[in-house]
Design a protein that fits this description.
The chain is α/β, with parallel strands linked by helices. It contains 14 helices and 16 strands. It has two domains: about 160 residues, 2-Layer Sandwich (VC0802-like); about 220 residues, Rossmann fold, CATH 3.40.50. Strand 7 and strand 8 form a beta hairpin. It starts with a strand and ends with a strand.
Length: about 400
């Protein structure tokens, strides 16, 4: 029934002279998302994006595109000429296939082509009257309709549709630079990565693995999360840092109540060093203010003090319920709740300091050879790339 999916951009349309760069990046990401689905072609047209299905299943295509940042919504459409009688006939054919029971409806028309002889209200009136006469089980409700039929008259064609599938909005991944995501095995950090992607950030990820204290299953869990995120960004590189010796040193030389704070400072030191080497401009964490002991303002201040790099916290003001909802929508939740502990949870002290002072945190590290520990961890780091629709990562 459908030959085209009409895709709409959101805030990209507000960009000025560099709008074309954002649109180009969005089309590249869309092509990557639908790669391998038939002979789908994608083109720009008058502020819209046309996805030419060429026989592909429109539902499969939309399912691939609905999480592409930069797209605000999509509609499978029927196209016709701008002949009014042809538009009426196509409208009836479309509604006869989707209206299977008594339903209320209204008609909305948008006349982008001002040379079309009817105004938008006149076109809606003509189509509404014809549909009402021709399609059974329909009655008009302009305020709270169960179904909205839309006709867009553009430069050369008319587009008819009844579905509007929401997209994530935001900006195309890759249009806002690159950041390094501190990816644990929990619920929050994959959502933070997605939120950064939604603002156009290309993500690399870093995970701190403490084998044998944490199992290989905990590592596989994080690798699976990186693979899921790759569906939305096209590729995610995962840096796996051997963190065991650092945690042993912290346990031996640091006060127990400050161990989490010191551990997080090491994570930021290592992440900042790797980010700088790879010309990455910022770090991303899944911290939400007040959620755990290391996420108070005092803890964040003490932890942040070891880096000059911007630390982005997309979830900082979000409730856990909202974070879980996004995780479920993304498909990361079921993996995140697998009962395999990461290096943060397995070394949690009995009474962690919730409001550590910077000076006492610095004193707690005085017996550690910080530079050597950081350098040795970086030297042992593995790098694996994950791609959309690829089962296993590729070592680099």
């Amino acid at each position: 029934m459908y030959a085209i999916v009409l895709a709409r951009m959101g805030e990209i349309s507000l960009k000025g002279k560099n709008r074309a760069d954002f649109e180009k990046r969005l089309l590249e990401n869309m092509h990557r998302a639908v790669k391998g689905i038939g002979k789908v072609k994608i083109s720009r047209s008058e502020g819209r994006i046309l996805v030419h299905l060429n026989g592909a299943d429109y539902q499969e295509v939309i399912e691939k595109l609905r999480w592409v940042p930069g797209l605000v919504s999509m509609s499978p459409v029927i196209t016709t000429s701008q002949n009014l009688e042809e538009i009426k006939q196509a409208a009836v054919q479309l509604l006869q296939q989707v209206v299977l029971k008594p339903t209320t409806f209204k008609v909305e028309s948008r006349r982008a082509n001002k040379s079309f002889p009817l105004t938008s209200p006149e076109l809606s009136k003509e189509l509404g009257a014809h549909i009402l006469r021709s399609v059974p089980n329909l009655s008009v409700d302009v305020h709270h309709p169960e179904l909205t039929f839309t006709c867009e008259v553009r430069a050369t064609d008319a587009y008819l549709y009844v579905e509007v599938i929401p997209g994530p909005g935001g900006l195309p991944v890759g249009s806002s630079g690159k950041a390094l995501l501190l990816l644990s095995g929990g619920i929050d950090s994959p959502v933070a990565g997605w939120m950064a992607m939604k603002r156009g950030v290309e993500i690399e990820a870093i995970h701190f693995h403490s084998f044998p204290f944490t199992s290989e299953r905990s590592r596989k869990k994080v690798e699976e999360l990186a693979q899921i995120l790759a569906r939305y960004g096209g590729r995610v590189r995962l840096h796996i840092v051997y963190f065991t010796e650092i945690q042993r040193a912290i346990r031996q030389h640091c006060p127990d109540e400050l161990s989490i704070t010191v551990m997080r400072r090491f994570m930021l030191r290592i992440a900042s060093r790797i980010a700088a080497e790879r010309k990455i401009l910022a770090l991303v964490t899944g911290e939400s203010l007040g959620q755990v002991a290391s996420q108070t303002l005092e803890s964040m201040f003490a932890i942040n003090h070891v880096t000059n790099m911007p630390v982005l916290r997309p979830l900082v003001a979000m409730d856990k319920v909202d974070i879980i909802k996004i995780a479920k929508d993304l498909g990361t939740y079921e993996t995140s709740i697998l009962p395999y502990e990461d290096c943060c949870t397995i070394f949690t002290p009995k009474a962690p300091r919730t409001r550590p002072r910077l000076e006492e945190t610095t004193r707690a590290e005085k017996n550690l050879d910080i530079e050597q520990l950081v350098q040795e961890a970086i030297e042992k780091t593995e790098l694996i790339s994950y791609y959309k629709d690829q089962e296993n990562g590729e070592s680099e």
